[in-house]
Write a structure and sequence with these properties.
The chain has 374 residues and is mostly helical. It has 15 helices and no strands. The C terminus is likely disordered.
Protein backbone atom coordinates (compact mmCIF):
# COMPACT_ATOMS: atom_id res chain seq x y z
CA UNK A 1 0.00 0.00 0.00
CA UNK A 2 1.11 3.58 -0.63
CA UNK A 3 1.26 4.44 3.06
CA UNK A 4 3.65 1.52 3.60
CA UNK A 5 6.19 3.03 1.25
CA UNK A 6 8.91 5.32 2.47
CA UNK A 7 8.32 7.88 -0.29
CA UNK A 8 4.92 9.34 0.51
CA UNK A 9 3.21 12.04 -1.55
CA UNK A 10 4.00 14.89 0.89
CA UNK A 11 7.61 13.75 1.16
CA UNK A 12 7.82 13.62 -2.64
CA UNK A 13 6.78 17.27 -2.79
CA UNK A 14 9.42 18.22 -0.23
CA UNK A 15 12.06 16.32 -2.21
CA UNK A 16 11.09 18.18 -5.38
CA UNK A 17 12.09 21.38 -3.58
CA UNK A 18 15.26 19.62 -2.38
CA UNK A 19 16.19 18.63 -5.94
CA UNK A 20 15.86 22.18 -7.18
CA UNK A 21 17.69 23.55 -4.16
CA UNK A 22 20.60 21.15 -4.66
CA UNK A 23 20.86 22.04 -8.36
CA UNK A 24 20.81 25.74 -7.48
CA UNK A 25 23.54 25.32 -4.86
CA UNK A 26 25.70 23.50 -7.42
CA UNK A 27 25.30 26.50 -9.74
CA UNK A 28 26.17 28.86 -6.86
CA UNK A 29 29.30 26.89 -6.02
CA UNK A 30 30.46 26.77 -9.62
CA UNK A 31 29.90 30.50 -10.04
CA UNK A 32 32.25 31.05 -7.10
CA UNK A 33 34.71 28.51 -8.50
CA UNK A 34 34.77 30.34 -11.86
CA UNK A 35 35.41 33.68 -10.17
CA UNK A 36 32.07 35.20 -11.14
CA UNK A 37 31.52 36.06 -7.49
CA UNK A 38 34.48 36.95 -5.25
CA UNK A 39 32.69 37.93 -2.09
CA UNK A 40 32.52 35.96 1.17
CA UNK A 41 31.75 32.26 0.64
CA UNK A 42 32.50 29.65 3.33
CA UNK A 43 32.21 26.32 1.50
CA UNK A 44 34.31 26.28 -1.66
CA UNK A 45 34.34 23.27 -3.98
CA UNK A 46 32.96 20.84 -1.45
CA UNK A 47 29.46 22.30 -1.30
CA UNK A 48 28.57 21.54 -4.90
CA UNK A 49 30.16 18.11 -4.63
CA UNK A 50 28.08 17.20 -1.60
CA UNK A 51 24.97 18.41 -3.41
CA UNK A 52 25.70 15.72 -6.00
CA UNK A 53 25.73 13.18 -3.18
CA UNK A 54 22.27 14.44 -2.24
CA UNK A 55 21.21 13.76 -5.85
CA UNK A 56 22.61 10.23 -5.67
CA UNK A 57 20.68 9.33 -2.52
CA UNK A 58 17.46 10.86 -3.89
CA UNK A 59 17.95 9.06 -7.18
CA UNK A 60 18.37 5.68 -5.51
CA UNK A 61 15.23 6.29 -3.45
CA UNK A 62 13.09 7.40 -6.40
CA UNK A 63 14.29 4.70 -8.81
CA UNK A 64 13.83 1.95 -6.24
CA UNK A 65 10.34 3.21 -5.38
CA UNK A 66 9.39 3.24 -9.06
CA UNK A 67 10.03 -0.50 -9.40
CA UNK A 68 8.89 -1.52 -5.92
CA UNK A 69 5.30 -2.19 -6.94
CA UNK A 70 6.33 -5.02 -9.24
CA UNK A 71 4.56 -3.59 -12.30
CA UNK A 72 7.77 -2.52 -13.99
CA UNK A 73 9.93 -4.57 -16.34
CA UNK A 74 13.39 -4.24 -17.86
CA UNK A 75 12.09 -2.81 -21.19
CA UNK A 76 9.82 -0.29 -19.44
CA UNK A 77 12.62 0.66 -17.05
CA UNK A 78 14.89 1.20 -20.06
CA UNK A 79 12.32 3.45 -21.75
CA UNK A 80 11.79 5.48 -18.59
CA UNK A 81 15.50 6.08 -18.02
CA UNK A 82 16.39 6.81 -21.65
CA UNK A 83 13.49 9.21 -22.13
CA UNK A 84 14.49 11.02 -18.95
CA UNK A 85 18.21 11.32 -19.70
CA UNK A 86 18.74 11.82 -23.43
CA UNK A 87 16.58 14.93 -24.00
CA UNK A 88 18.79 16.83 -21.53
CA UNK A 89 22.18 15.07 -21.65
CA UNK A 90 22.88 15.27 -25.38
CA UNK A 91 21.78 18.93 -25.83
CA UNK A 92 23.79 19.87 -22.71
CA UNK A 93 26.99 18.43 -24.15
CA UNK A 94 26.46 20.02 -27.54
CA UNK A 95 25.62 23.38 -25.99
CA UNK A 96 28.74 23.22 -23.83
CA UNK A 97 30.93 22.68 -26.90
CA UNK A 98 29.15 25.49 -28.74
CA UNK A 99 29.55 27.83 -25.79
CA UNK A 100 33.23 27.00 -25.46
CA UNK A 101 34.35 27.21 -29.06
CA UNK A 102 31.88 29.45 -30.88
CA UNK A 103 30.42 31.90 -28.40
CA UNK A 104 33.09 32.17 -25.72
CA UNK A 105 35.97 32.97 -28.05
CA UNK A 106 39.39 32.37 -26.50
CA UNK A 107 38.00 31.60 -23.04
CA UNK A 108 39.10 28.16 -21.89
CA UNK A 109 36.46 25.87 -20.50
CA UNK A 110 38.07 24.23 -17.49
CA UNK A 111 41.27 25.39 -15.90
CA UNK A 112 43.72 25.55 -18.84
CA UNK A 113 43.76 22.11 -20.44
CA UNK A 114 41.31 22.63 -23.30
CA UNK A 115 42.71 21.39 -26.62
CA UNK A 116 42.64 23.23 -29.93
CA UNK A 117 42.92 20.17 -32.17
CA UNK A 118 39.43 19.09 -33.43
CA UNK A 119 40.36 15.40 -33.18
CA UNK A 120 41.34 15.82 -29.54
CA UNK A 121 38.11 17.73 -28.96
CA UNK A 122 36.19 14.73 -30.29
CA UNK A 123 38.10 12.26 -28.11
CA UNK A 124 37.28 14.33 -25.03
CA UNK A 125 33.63 14.67 -26.00
CA UNK A 126 32.78 11.08 -26.99
CA UNK A 127 33.68 9.26 -23.73
CA UNK A 128 31.24 11.31 -21.61
CA UNK A 129 28.54 10.78 -24.27
CA UNK A 130 29.12 7.03 -23.86
CA UNK A 131 28.93 7.37 -20.04
CA UNK A 132 32.37 5.79 -19.49
CA UNK A 133 34.37 8.79 -18.33
CA UNK A 134 35.34 7.27 -14.97
CA UNK A 135 37.63 4.64 -16.48
CA UNK A 136 41.31 5.19 -15.66
CA UNK A 137 42.90 7.21 -18.40
CA UNK A 138 39.61 8.41 -19.80
CA UNK A 139 39.43 12.20 -20.21
CA UNK A 140 37.16 14.05 -17.85
CA UNK A 141 34.13 15.83 -19.40
CA UNK A 142 36.00 19.13 -19.49
CA UNK A 143 33.35 20.77 -21.65
CA UNK A 144 30.76 20.33 -18.91
CA UNK A 145 32.25 19.07 -15.62
CA UNK A 146 28.87 18.50 -13.87
CA UNK A 147 28.30 15.78 -16.47
CA UNK A 148 30.52 13.44 -14.44
CA UNK A 149 27.71 12.57 -12.04
CA UNK A 150 25.42 11.56 -14.89
CA UNK A 151 28.12 9.20 -16.18
CA UNK A 152 28.13 7.59 -12.74
CA UNK A 153 24.38 7.54 -12.38
CA UNK A 154 23.74 5.82 -15.71
CA UNK A 155 25.93 2.95 -14.57
CA UNK A 156 24.08 2.82 -11.26
CA UNK A 157 20.80 2.58 -13.20
CA UNK A 158 22.13 -0.20 -15.39
CA UNK A 159 23.61 -2.34 -12.62
CA UNK A 160 20.51 -1.92 -10.46
CA UNK A 161 18.21 -2.91 -13.35
CA UNK A 162 20.21 -6.04 -14.16
CA UNK A 163 20.13 -7.07 -10.50
CA UNK A 164 16.41 -6.35 -10.14
CA UNK A 165 14.92 -7.75 -13.34
CA UNK A 166 17.14 -10.71 -14.23
CA UNK A 167 17.35 -14.00 -12.41
CA UNK A 168 19.81 -16.83 -11.89
CA UNK A 169 23.08 -17.02 -13.79
CA UNK A 170 21.95 -14.34 -16.22
CA UNK A 171 21.83 -11.86 -13.35
CA UNK A 172 25.20 -12.94 -11.94
CA UNK A 173 26.92 -12.79 -15.33
CA UNK A 174 25.47 -9.48 -16.52
CA UNK A 175 25.97 -7.68 -13.20
CA UNK A 176 29.57 -8.90 -13.08
CA UNK A 177 30.27 -7.72 -16.62
CA UNK A 178 28.57 -4.38 -15.95
CA UNK A 179 30.61 -3.81 -12.78
CA UNK A 180 33.87 -4.62 -14.56
CA UNK A 181 32.93 -2.35 -17.45
CA UNK A 182 31.90 0.52 -15.17
CA UNK A 183 35.24 0.47 -13.38
CA UNK A 184 36.36 0.78 -9.79
CA UNK A 185 35.91 4.53 -9.48
CA UNK A 186 32.19 4.32 -10.27
CA UNK A 187 31.67 1.32 -8.02
CA UNK A 188 33.39 3.24 -5.23
CA UNK A 189 30.41 5.62 -5.07
CA UNK A 190 27.63 3.15 -5.83
CA UNK A 191 27.05 2.42 -2.10
CA UNK A 192 25.96 6.05 -1.74
CA UNK A 193 23.30 5.55 -4.42
CA UNK A 194 22.25 2.26 -2.79
CA UNK A 195 21.63 4.11 0.49
CA UNK A 196 18.58 5.64 -1.18
CA UNK A 197 17.52 2.19 -2.39
CA UNK A 198 17.85 0.83 1.14
CA UNK A 199 15.31 3.34 2.43
CA UNK A 200 12.57 1.65 0.41
CA UNK A 201 13.32 -1.71 2.05
CA UNK A 202 13.91 -0.65 5.67
CA UNK A 203 10.74 -0.65 7.81
CA UNK A 204 12.59 1.11 10.64
CA UNK A 205 13.08 4.14 8.37
CA UNK A 206 9.30 4.66 8.42
CA UNK A 207 8.93 4.55 12.20
CA UNK A 208 10.72 7.64 13.48
CA UNK A 209 8.39 9.44 15.93
CA UNK A 210 7.39 12.96 14.96
CA UNK A 211 8.67 14.34 18.27
CA UNK A 212 12.15 13.02 17.51
CA UNK A 213 12.28 14.15 13.89
CA UNK A 214 13.31 17.81 14.47
CA UNK A 215 16.11 16.67 16.78
CA UNK A 216 17.42 14.27 14.14
CA UNK A 217 17.20 16.98 11.48
CA UNK A 218 19.18 19.40 13.65
CA UNK A 219 21.78 16.71 14.23
CA UNK A 220 22.03 16.16 10.46
CA UNK A 221 22.73 19.85 9.89
CA UNK A 222 25.40 19.84 12.59
CA UNK A 223 27.04 16.72 11.20
CA UNK A 224 27.03 18.14 7.67
CA UNK A 225 28.82 21.28 8.87
CA UNK A 226 31.29 19.19 10.86
CA UNK A 227 32.03 17.09 7.80
CA UNK A 228 33.43 20.17 6.07
CA UNK A 229 36.04 20.33 8.83
CA UNK A 230 37.26 16.73 8.67
CA UNK A 231 36.86 15.60 5.07
CA UNK A 232 39.97 17.17 3.54
CA UNK A 233 42.21 16.67 6.59
CA UNK A 234 41.15 13.14 7.59
CA UNK A 235 38.87 11.26 5.19
CA UNK A 236 40.48 12.16 1.86
CA UNK A 237 44.03 11.16 2.90
CA UNK A 238 42.59 7.95 4.34
CA UNK A 239 41.04 7.07 0.97
CA UNK A 240 44.28 7.80 -0.89
CA UNK A 241 46.17 5.52 1.48
CA UNK A 242 43.63 2.70 1.10
CA UNK A 243 42.46 2.79 -2.55
CA UNK A 244 45.03 1.22 -4.94
CA UNK A 245 43.73 2.62 -8.25
CA UNK A 246 42.70 5.95 -9.71
CA UNK A 247 39.73 7.54 -7.98
CA UNK A 248 38.77 9.96 -10.79
CA UNK A 249 35.63 11.79 -9.57
CA UNK A 250 35.43 9.54 -6.48
CA UNK A 251 38.39 11.14 -4.73
CA UNK A 252 36.20 12.17 -1.77
CA UNK A 253 34.49 8.79 -1.47
CA UNK A 254 34.86 8.33 2.30
CA UNK A 255 33.48 11.81 2.93
CA UNK A 256 30.75 11.04 0.39
CA UNK A 257 29.77 7.93 2.37
CA UNK A 258 29.44 10.12 5.45
CA UNK A 259 27.35 12.69 3.57
CA UNK A 260 25.19 9.90 2.18
CA UNK A 261 24.45 8.62 5.67
CA UNK A 262 23.67 12.16 6.83
CA UNK A 263 21.27 12.53 3.90
CA UNK A 264 19.58 9.25 4.78
CA UNK A 265 19.06 10.45 8.35
CA UNK A 266 17.69 13.74 7.04
CA UNK A 267 15.19 11.91 4.81
CA UNK A 268 14.11 9.69 7.69
CA UNK A 269 13.42 12.80 9.79
CA UNK A 270 11.73 14.65 6.91
CA UNK A 271 9.17 11.91 6.37
CA UNK A 272 7.14 12.30 9.60
CA UNK A 273 7.36 16.09 9.42
CA UNK A 274 6.07 16.09 5.83
CA UNK A 275 3.21 13.82 6.90
CA UNK A 276 2.37 16.07 9.86
CA UNK A 277 2.10 19.12 7.62
CA UNK A 278 0.71 17.26 4.62
CA UNK A 279 -2.00 19.86 3.97
CA UNK A 280 0.26 22.91 3.55
CA UNK A 281 2.88 20.80 1.78
CA UNK A 282 0.45 19.48 -0.82
CA UNK A 283 -0.75 23.00 -1.55
CA UNK A 284 2.81 23.69 -2.75
CA UNK A 285 2.79 20.68 -5.07
CA UNK A 286 2.48 22.69 -8.28
CA UNK A 287 5.31 25.05 -7.36
CA UNK A 288 7.51 22.12 -6.35
CA UNK A 289 6.77 20.36 -9.62
CA UNK A 290 7.54 23.51 -11.60
CA UNK A 291 10.94 23.96 -9.96
CA UNK A 292 11.88 20.29 -10.03
CA UNK A 293 10.74 20.16 -13.65
CA UNK A 294 13.82 22.03 -14.80
CA UNK A 295 16.33 21.07 -12.09
CA UNK A 296 18.01 18.53 -14.38
CA UNK A 297 18.41 21.19 -17.07
CA UNK A 298 19.70 23.66 -14.49
CA UNK A 299 22.27 21.14 -13.33
CA UNK A 300 23.62 20.29 -16.80
CA UNK A 301 23.37 23.72 -18.47
CA UNK A 302 24.51 26.14 -15.78
CA UNK A 303 28.25 25.58 -16.34
CA UNK A 304 28.37 26.65 -20.01
CA UNK A 305 25.98 29.52 -19.26
CA UNK A 306 28.27 30.72 -16.47
CA UNK A 307 31.24 30.41 -18.80
CA UNK A 308 29.46 32.54 -21.38
CA UNK A 309 28.66 35.15 -18.76
CA UNK A 310 32.26 35.28 -17.58
CA UNK A 311 33.73 35.42 -21.08
CA UNK A 312 31.54 38.43 -21.88
CA UNK A 313 32.40 40.28 -18.69
CA UNK A 314 29.18 39.52 -16.80
CA UNK A 315 30.62 39.06 -13.32
CA UNK A 316 29.38 40.10 -9.91
CA UNK A 317 32.68 40.89 -8.24
CA UNK A 318 32.05 41.18 -4.51
CA UNK A 319 28.45 42.35 -4.83
CA UNK A 320 25.90 39.85 -3.45
CA UNK A 321 23.08 41.76 -5.16
CA UNK A 322 24.73 41.50 -8.56
CA UNK A 323 25.47 37.83 -7.88
CA UNK A 324 21.82 37.08 -7.10
CA UNK A 325 20.74 38.94 -10.24
CA UNK A 326 23.20 37.03 -12.41
CA UNK A 327 22.14 33.70 -10.93
CA UNK A 328 18.53 34.68 -11.56
CA UNK A 329 19.35 35.14 -15.24
CA UNK A 330 21.00 31.71 -15.39
CA UNK A 331 18.05 30.04 -13.65
CA UNK A 332 15.57 31.79 -15.95
CA UNK A 333 17.59 30.75 -19.01
CA UNK A 334 17.60 27.13 -17.83
CA UNK A 335 13.84 27.26 -17.23
CA UNK A 336 13.36 28.37 -20.84
CA UNK A 337 15.81 25.78 -22.18
CA UNK A 338 13.94 23.07 -20.28
CA UNK A 339 10.95 23.63 -22.57
CA UNK A 340 13.09 22.10 -25.33
CA UNK A 341 14.85 19.50 -23.17
CA UNK A 342 13.35 18.23 -19.94
CA UNK A 343 9.77 19.05 -20.89
CA UNK A 344 10.14 16.86 -23.97
CA UNK A 345 10.83 13.74 -21.92
CA UNK A 346 7.14 12.67 -21.66
CA UNK A 347 6.77 13.01 -25.43
CA UNK A 348 9.85 10.89 -26.07
CA UNK A 349 8.64 8.32 -23.57
CA UNK A 350 5.23 8.04 -25.27
CA UNK A 351 6.93 7.70 -28.64
CA UNK A 352 9.25 4.94 -27.39
CA UNK A 353 6.43 3.09 -25.64
CA UNK A 354 4.31 3.23 -28.79
CA UNK A 355 7.15 1.74 -30.84
CA UNK A 356 8.20 -0.88 -28.31
CA UNK A 357 5.00 -1.97 -26.60
CA UNK A 358 2.07 -1.17 -28.90
CA UNK A 359 2.84 -4.01 -31.39
CA UNK A 360 3.09 -6.54 -28.56
CA UNK A 361 -0.16 -5.30 -27.03
CA UNK A 362 -1.81 -5.56 -30.42
CA UNK A 363 -0.69 -9.17 -30.80
CA UNK A 364 -1.99 -9.99 -27.32
CA UNK A 365 -5.35 -8.41 -28.15
CA UNK A 366 -5.59 -10.38 -31.43
CA UNK A 367 -4.70 -13.57 -29.57
CA UNK A 368 -7.45 -12.99 -27.01
CA UNK A 369 -9.97 -12.23 -29.76
CA UNK A 370 -9.08 -15.41 -31.64
CA UNK A 371 -9.34 -17.41 -28.43
CA UNK A 372 -12.81 -15.96 -27.82
CA UNK A 373 -13.90 -16.80 -31.36
CA UNK A 374 -12.66 -20.36 -30.99
Amino acid sequence: MAEDRFLTRPLSVVLDFARFGAALLVAVGHAVQLGIYRGPFPFGLRMQHYCVIVFFVLSGLVISTSVLGGRSSLPRYFVARVSRILPVAIPALLFAVLAAYVLAGPMRVYIDNSPDDPLEVATRLLPPMAFVSAWPGMPAPVWNPPYWSLCYEVWFYAIFALAMFLRGWARVATVTVACITAGGAILLLMPVWLMGVALTHAPMARRLPLATAPVVMAACLGLALALFEVDRAVLNPLLKAWWPGQTQWSQWAFADFAMGLIMVMALVSLRPMAERFAGPVMRLKDLAGLLAGFSFTLYLFHWPLLQLARSHGLVAGRSPVAFVALLGLVVAACALISLLTERQSPRLRRWMEARMFAPAMGRETMGRERGTEA
